[in-house]
């Protein structure tokens, strides 16, 4: 069974600085999707960035980028120029490509990011 | 804007009293999911519908049921809520097309319903 591990329960970053959130996963599949979701307090979970395992190029979305190391099964999120609005719980998630799961997400336990002004 | 809407945002019920949570979507997605998220934990998938096909996770308690009367609506029914069922319940949607599930479409989440048990 696939698992997702986020080893940092909490992280803190100074406004305008850069922070990296770690995520590792375990799977026997060769093709899959990885996601980072952001969940602000009492607010909707929203997609930050996605990565398709068959693509070697790391995904980027404005200030957000990933470091995808397929062999190491690592998928870290880098947030550049951190803003107060980035404060949230961040979840790393895995999704299998095939089978009867219809896109079920397997989440890590999350990393709570605080941004200091 | 197209979205996933969950009602109510907050729900209080009594121990053992049946409760229904609602989710609707304007995205016309063919898959709808229900997750349970307890405090400071990751969301845990309870079940999902792929069109009309219901898929239950193996460890979802029998106390939890779901209905999807049409594409737009999906309900979560808790027949006899216990104190351990107090949680945030998240509804999400996604879309799959073609003969396989090779779609990079992400899941779109609602705001969630926070359920409290008295």
Can you lay out the helices and strands and say which pair or pack?
The complex is a heterodimer of chains A (117) and B (118).
Chain A: E1 3-5, E2 10-14, E3 19-21, E4 24-26, E5 32-39, E6 46-52, E7 60-61, E8 64-69, E9 74-79, E10 88-96, E11 105-107, E12 111-116
Parallel strand pairs in A: 2-12
Antiparallel strand pairs in A: 1-4, 3-9, 5-6, 5-10, 7-8, 8-9, 10-11, 10-12
Chain B: E1 4-7, E2 10-13, E3 19-25, E4 31-37, E5 44-50, E6 53-56, E7 64-67, E8 73-78, E9 87-94, E10 108-109, E11 113-117
Question: Could you explain the architecture of this structure?
Answer:
The complex is a heterodimer of chains A (117) and B (118). Chain A is mainly beta and 117 residues long. Chain A has a single domain, classed as Immunoglobulins (Immunoglobulin-like). Chain A has no helices and 12 strands. In chain A, strands 2, 5, 6, 10, 11 and 12 form a 6-stranded mixed sheet that branches. Chain A has a 4-stranded antiparallel sheet with strand order 3-9-8-7, with no helix packed on it. Chain A is globular and about 45 Å long. Chain B has 118 residues and is mostly beta strands. Chain B has a single domain (4-97, 109-117), classed as Immunoglobulins (Immunoglobulin-like). Chain B contains no helices and 11 strands. Chain B has strands at residues 4-7, 10-13, 19-25, 31-37, 44-50, 53-56, 64-67, 73-78, 87-94, 108-109, 113-117. In chain B, strands 2, 4, 5, 6, 9, 10 and 11 form a 7-stranded mixed sheet that branches. In chain B, 33% of the residues are buried. At the A-B interface, strand 5 and strand 6 of A face strand 5, strand 9 and strand 10 of B.
């Amino acid at each position: 069974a696939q698992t997702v591990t986020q080893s940092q329960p909490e992280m803190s970053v100074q406004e305008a600085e850069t922070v990296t959130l770690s995520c590792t996963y375990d799977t026997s599949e060769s093709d899959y999707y990885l996601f980072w979701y952001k969940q602000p307090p009492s607010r909707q979970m929203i997609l930050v960035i996605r990565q398709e395992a068959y693509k070697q190029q790391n995904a980027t979305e404005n200030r957000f980028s990933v470091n995808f190391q397929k062999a190491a099964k690592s998928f870290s999120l880098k947030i550049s120029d951190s803003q107060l609005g980035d404060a949230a719980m961040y979840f790393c998630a895995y999704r299998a490509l095939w089978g009867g799961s219809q896109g079920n997400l397997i989440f890590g336990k999350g990393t709570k990011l605080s941004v200091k002004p | 804007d197209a979205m996933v809407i969950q009602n109510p945002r907050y729900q209080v019920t009594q121990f053992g009293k049946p409760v229904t949570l609602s989710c609707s979507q304007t995205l016309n997605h063919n898959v709808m999911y229900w997750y349970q998220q307890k405090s400071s934990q990751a969301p845990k998938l309870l079940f999902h519908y792929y069109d009309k096909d219901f898929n239950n996770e193996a460890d979802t308690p029998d106390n939890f049921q779901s209905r999807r009367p049409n594409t737009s609506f999906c309900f979560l029914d808790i027949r006899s809520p216990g104190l351990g069922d107090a949680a945030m319940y998240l509804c999400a949607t996604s879309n799959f097309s073609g003969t396989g599930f090779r779609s990079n479409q992400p899941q779109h989440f609602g705001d969630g319903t926070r359920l409290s048990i008295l």
